Amino acid sequence: MTWNVVGHAWAIRALQRDLALGRPAHAYLFTGPAGIGKRTLALAFAQALNCTAPPAPGEACRACRACRQIAARAHPDLFVLLSEEPGKPIKVEAAREMMHILALSPLELHWRVALLADFDQATSSTANALLKTLEEPPASVILLLTAESAETLLPTIVSRCRVITLRTLPTPEVEAALIERWQVPPDRAKLLAHLSGGRLGWALREVEDEGASQTRRDTLDAWRSVFSATRAKRFEQVAHLTKDRDEEQALRRTLETWQSLTHDLLLAGIDPQAPLTNLDYADEIRALATHVSAARARRWLAALQRVERGIERNLNLRLALEAAVLEAPSL
Ligand SMILES: [Zn+2]
């Protein structure tokens, strides 16, 4: 296999089958949780489509000009549309412009590939702009969409795409890839693989983010200090966490980590031998668990999950978090 992708073997096989038959679909939708490798796989597919020296049908050499240009996202027939900021929708004007170019371009020998990332964030006007192209796809154009799930997209879009659903990788596969391909020290690779829940892209972002371990330390400290804080102190912490409205992404990450820690706390409370996700804090979590009943841990976890759902529904975050921290166990 010459696709430069870790895991997702069945998805690669399915895409290679389409290539070998010479009949790729006009549009593909890659779905799966953030950091699972949707974009990586889509770009590898674009390479296989356009490679000028494939070692075998459906493969990519990764050395020819086309392969190198696609890897650098600099191929003249590769159009990539990302949102300008994580979590923000892609601009409708940019999508319209892209569809316009795709419709106008003269027919060439190779495929023109348009990647529209995080399409579940797209507004309905962007979706409509795309729909016209999907309904009458220009020859030699292949649209690649990514989204966390197909359910949030317009059914008229999904029905015109070949859906490739990606699943998380086994943790040992992430760990091995981190060590062998990215030279991550074994201890850190083991931890990141566990925390990633099988999402290699997520683990790689942590590897690249040098401040990540300090942020993690701060997040854990904040989570633990809630237990011993008075009601007023808990509200102070919420005010601190929500003070910056632009920091929604950071707050989401904090919530995700808090949920993961609380889930471990619940597990450790039920069974002290239970394998935990947060390996680097396993001892501290097990010690805490001896003071917290499983019922309280469960309530705290449910409260944090409600806050996360609230973010998606644009509820008042500060109020939601204030309600949640009152559900945290007290020590
Ligand atoms: Zn090539």
Structure characterization notes:
This protein has helices spanning 9-20, 38-50, 65-71, 92-104, 124-135, 155-158, 171-182, 186-196, 200-208, 212-228, 231-241, 248-270, 282-289, 294-312, 317-325; strands at residues 27-31, 78-81, 112-116, 141-147, 162-165. The chain contains 15 helices and five strands. It is globular. By secondary structure, the chain is α/β, with parallel strands linked by helices. The chain folds into two domains: 9-165, Rossmann fold, CATH 3.40.50.300; 209-325, Zinc Finger, Delta Prime, domain 3 (Up-down Bundle). Strand 2, helix 4 and strand 3 form a beta-alpha-beta unit. A five-stranded parallel sheet has the order 2-3-4-1-5, with helices on both faces. The structure holds zinc ion.
Task: Choose one word for the global shape.
Answer: globular
Query: Which ligands occur here?
Result: zinc ion
Assign the CATH superfamily of the largest domain: P-loop containing nucleotide triphosphate hydrolases
Query: How many helix segments?
Result: 15
**Class per helix and strand makeup:** alpha/beta
Secondary-structure arrangement, i.e. CATH architecture of the largest domain = 3-Layer(aba) Sandwich
* CATH level 1 class label of the largest domain: Alpha Beta
Strand residue content: 5-15%
Counted up, domains total 2
CA-CA gap between termini? 54 Å
The profile of the biggest β sheet is: 5 strands, parallel
* Regions with little confidence, pLDDT below 50 for 5+ residues: none
How many extended strands? 5
Oligomer: single chain
- Overall average pLDDT: 89
Radius of gyration: 23 Å
Look up the CATH topology of the largest domain.
Rossmann fold
Share of residues in helices: 40-55%
Order of helices and strands: HEHHEHEHEHEHHHHHHHHH
Strand arrangement across the biggest beta sheet: 2-3-4-1-5
